[in-house]
Design a protein that fits this description.
It comes from Berryella intestinalis. This protein is mainly alpha-helical. The protein has a domain of 126 residues. The protein has ten helices and no strands.
């Protein structure tokens, strides 16, 4: 009997608790419905503000906040600064370039004058320009670049197909540096070795004493310098007699013919 009474009490308590929960649920639903029907309410605004706050980036704090402030200040300062005046720097660069160009021009003029003087001195020392032998005059007044360009082409044409082929510029540069007729050394190579085809010593295409070299680049320079030092500006009967005493006339005639063909 007592057991039955306790059971009834538990059932009644459960019913009461369920009724309370139902009432509470109805109240919540009613509140939400009222909010939806009443337009913009405080609850709605609160929800919108919270959503906005949650989507925004968190504000920097501590050291990060300080760095952000410094960057902002620097950007503001740069935006407020006036543009730098670079005209002075540009002018200085132009002056340097002009000075360098002028120095190069003066050096070139000095080089051209030196080459012309070397040739004149060599002609004066020998007392000959080549005209007496029927050779055309060499124009030294054109300057180094034009001189080398002209005589490189002419000498290369003369040496084409030979072991000395392609040495035209080397001959022309050496002639300019030593102030002698640029045709003389190439012509002797034809008389002495058929333009380097029959060298009695390595790279000695001129029957030049007992000398030998490691390349035509070296021997061309050495031979032209040797002519300038020991034989004068250009071919002459006296130079032929000194260069080839046993057969002077033939040597002279052969070398002159080659010089005329260059």
């Amino acid at each position: 009997m007592a057991s039955t009474t306790k059971q009834r009490k538990r059932v009644a308590a459960g019913s009461i608790a369920g009724a309370v929960a139902a009432v509470a649920l109805v109240g919540v639903i009613g509140l939400n419905v009222a909010s939806a029907n009443s337009g913009s309410t405080q609850a709605d605004r609160f929800g919108i503000e919270m959503a906005a706050l949650s989507s925004a980036s968190p504000a920097p704090s501590g050291a990060f906040a300080a760095e952000a402030a410094d960057a902002s200040y620097g950007a503001s300062t740069l935006s407020q600064s006036s543009p730098r005046n670079i005209a002075a720097g540009v002018s200085a660069i132009e002056e340097e370039e002009n000075a360098a160009a002028e120095a190069e021009r003066q050096a070139k003029a000095a080089e051209d004058a030196a080459g012309l003087n070397r040739a004149r001195n060599a002609m004066s020392a020998q007392g000959s320009t080549g005209a007496s032998a029927g050779l055309s005059e060499v124009d030294w007044t054109v300057g180094h670049d034009a001189f080398v360009e002209e005589w490189s082409e002419r000498i290369d044409a003369f040496l084409a197909g030979s072991p000395l082929a392609g040495q035209g510029e080397n001959f022309a540069e050496a002639a300019w540096d030593n102030g002698i007729d640029p045709r003389w050394s190439p012509a002797i190579s034809k008389t002495e070795s058929s333009r380097g085809a029959i060298c009695f010593l390595p790279y000695n295409a001129w029957g030049w004493g007992a000398s030998s070299w490691d390349s035509f680049d070296e021997s061309v320079k050495a031979h032209v310098a040797g002519l300038a030092k020991g034989y004068g500006y250009t071919l002459s009967k006296g130079a032929a007699a000194k260069y080839c005493p046993p057969n002077t006339d033939h040597w002279y005639a052969s070398t002159l013919a080659s010089m005329k063909s260059i």
